[in-house]
Amino acid sequence: MPFGYVSPEQQMRDKADYARKGIARGRSVVVLQYEDGILFVAPNPSRALHKISEIYDKIGFAAVGRYNEFEALRLGGIRYADINGYTYARDDVTARGLANLYAQNLGQIFTESLKPFEVEIVVAEVGDSSDEDHIYRLTFDGSVFDEAGLVAMGGQAETVAARLKERYRDGLSLTEALEAALFALTEPGGERFPANQLEVAVLDRNRPHRKFLRLNGPRLERLLAQGAPVAGGEKTAGGENPLSAPETPGAPPTAPDGDIDTGSSG
């Protein structure tokens, strides 16, 4: 046997350990269904680099790990969606098709490259009803998991997922879903993330055409206020729909709903 020989099995194990350690160094991202669609929540103080983005009309993307690696995947997914939507029909672009594309790319990189991608991603599609929603999680080696209702990835994903399951149920309102996500992402006894350190977006099935909407500024602050505990352990009243409520007078206008971002952060 030549000096320095490493079996293929050991190479695969070493690559997998390397990728898992890289992914675990980042903060977790959670994705979960609520009554009107799918919610994405990630701790992220950056306003320029995003972990959560739009891919196509009804499809959203979330990622953890190395920014440059999952940004390349995101841009490749957008090109795939644009070409197929233009060549065939917009309804022919699906989360399943994107998940298959990403699985092939990640699997090939994991098998053939010396260094695997240190990424984990979610591709989610909102349907006309909750039964038609799809959430696919893809790992660094190209494995695909069809998730039911919720998923947590990155950081202490198992611990975050366990806390999320404590609060999750079918038919949560948007405020309740955001509250469940923040409960899962916050360390026990720790302080909750303020609005300016959160990246939040939804795929809202009730929106016409493009379903993706980024929640920030006054919209997000209203949602957080509605779900925040007050004296006596109660919560503030739900009140108006935060997605349709007007912005604060005098505030700068927000970007057009559903605009595709130029980046996604690790």
Low-confidence stretches: 230-239, 246-266
Helix vs. strand class: alpha+beta
Order of helices and strands: HEEEEHHEEEEHHEEH
Gyration radius, rounded: 19 Å
Number of helices: 6
Helix content: 25-40%
Task: Report what the structure shows.
This protein is an alpha+beta fold and 266 residues long. It is built from six helices and ten strands; from the N terminus they run αββββααββββααββα. The strands form two sheets. It has a five-stranded antiparallel β-sheet. Helix 4 runs antiparallel to helix 5. The protein is globular, with a radius of gyration of 19 Å. The C terminus is likely disordered.
In short:
This protein has 266 residues and is an alpha+beta fold. Helices cover 34% and strands 21% of the residues.
List the defining traits of the structure above.
single chain; about 270 residues; alpha+beta; 5-stranded antiparallel sheet; about 20% strand; globular; disordered C terminus
Write the layout of secondary structure elements.
Elements: H1 8-24, E1 29-34, E2 37-43, E3 52-56, E4 59-65, H2 67-87, H3 95-112, E5 119-125, E6 134-138, E7 144-147, E8 150-153, H4 157-167, H5 174-185, E9 198-204, E10 212-215, H6 217-227
Antiparallel strand pairs: 1-2, 1-8, 2-9, 3-4, 4-5, 5-6, 6-7, 9-10
Helix pairs in contact: 4-5, 5-6
